[in-house]
Structure formats: C-alpha cells, structure tokens
Design a protein that fits this description.
The protein is α/β, with parallel strands linked by helices. It has 3 helices and 7 strands. Helix 2 packs antiparallel against helix 3 (152-192). The two termini are 24 Å apart.
Length: 196
C-alpha cells in the first residue's frame, strides 16, 4: 500500500501471544521504529526516512507486516488408499510500526493529527492481519478436505498444490485491498500533513 511515496503492508498490532483455532496456531508480534519531529510534516518525513524496507516492493515503508508459516498433514492408509487423518497450520506474523519518540515536541493540533495518522495505519494493518489469519484457517480446512489418493506421495503433492493456490489467493486479496485503499489513504494523509 503506497502512501505518499511510501509503502504500508498489513499488520495487527499489540499481540504477542498465540491465538488458537482448532489446529491452527497463530502468533503475532510487533516491533516499532522511532520517528520524531517538531511538526506533523516532519514526523511524516521521519517515517519515510526511517521506516522498514519492504522486500516485496524494494523500498521503505511507513509500516510493514510479514509472516512465516508451516503446515503439516498426518496421513493414514486405509486399504489401498492414503487419506488425511489431520492437518495443522502454524503461522507467525511480524509487524513493524512507527512510534513517536517525543510527542511533546508537537503542538496539540499536530499531536491529534499524529494520533489520527497512526490510527489510519493501524486500521489498515489490522485488515491485513485478518487476511493472514483467514489464509491460515482456509489452508487448514482445505488440507483436511483433501480426497484420499492411491498413494501418500500423491496426497502430499496435492497438499502442496492446495497451499500454493490458497497462498496466491491470499496475496491477491491483500494486493486488491492495498489498491483500493491507496487513494483514500493518501488524500487523508495529505489533508492531515499538508506540505508547507
């Protein structure tokens, strides 16, 4: 998600404990980077200068999310067929978010603007977090629903195919969200931190 020349990629902040949903294990952790400035314009410039580098886009972002996941299927042979006995997905979501290091340097109006800008970023990232968790749950359900195969190697291949398909769907869902949010986010950011 591009915001005045910068990128924002999804997050849900503040969670560092696992969230369990059946055999889906999701842990979320956030860290911050420092931003500063005596005006809201300076704070926005600080975000652009100090934000995390997005590997996906190859440039600095205002905030960023990334995730790692693994999946496992337990198989069972029944007669001449190999079927899924159970499936699990483990996901770790990482967030990098801005933190204003000296809020008292801002006047009251700019502090209020900062709170709104930060809220916009958090709201955007929260949605990405929901999409990531949806992907984990969808993957686990799809793995459990795999049809029995003539051998277990074929079943594992089907599992890899399902994972790739659902991961592609999830990435496209996040990209569509970013495209839809791009212009509204930029308009609001420019209103709250107009150029001087």
């Amino acid at each position: 998600f591009k915001a005045v020349g910068q990128l924002i990629a999804g997050t849900l902040i503040g969670l560092s404990v696992p969230a369990w949903a059946g055999d889906v294990s999701i842990s979320e952790r956030s860290r911050t980077y420092r931003v500063s400035g005596g005006t809201i314009q300076a704070v926005v410039k600080s975000m652009k200068r100090n934000g995390p580098v997005s590997e996906l886009h190859g440039r600095r972002a205002l905030a960023m999310a990334d995730y790692r996941f693994s999946h496992n299927i337990r198989v069972k042979r029944t007669g001449d067929r190999c079927r899924v006995a159970d499936a699990s997905v483990n996901m770790r979501i990482f967030y990098v978010l801005p933190r204003l290091s000296q809020p008292k340097r801002l006047n009251g109006r700019d502090r209020a603007r900062w709170r709104r800008i930060n809220g916009m970023i958090v709201a955007h990232e929260n949605q990405h977090g929901r999409y990531y968790r949806r992907f984990a749950r969808d993957l686990q359900r799809a793995l459990r629903a795999l049809k029995p195969q003539s051998n277990c190697a074929r079943l594992h291949q089907k599992a890899r195919t399902v994972r790739k398909r659902l991961e592609s769907i999830s990435k496209n869902r996040n990209r569509r969200f970013d495209r839809a949010q791009y212009k509204p986010f930029n308009r609001r950011l420019k209103r709250m931190a107009p150029r001087r």
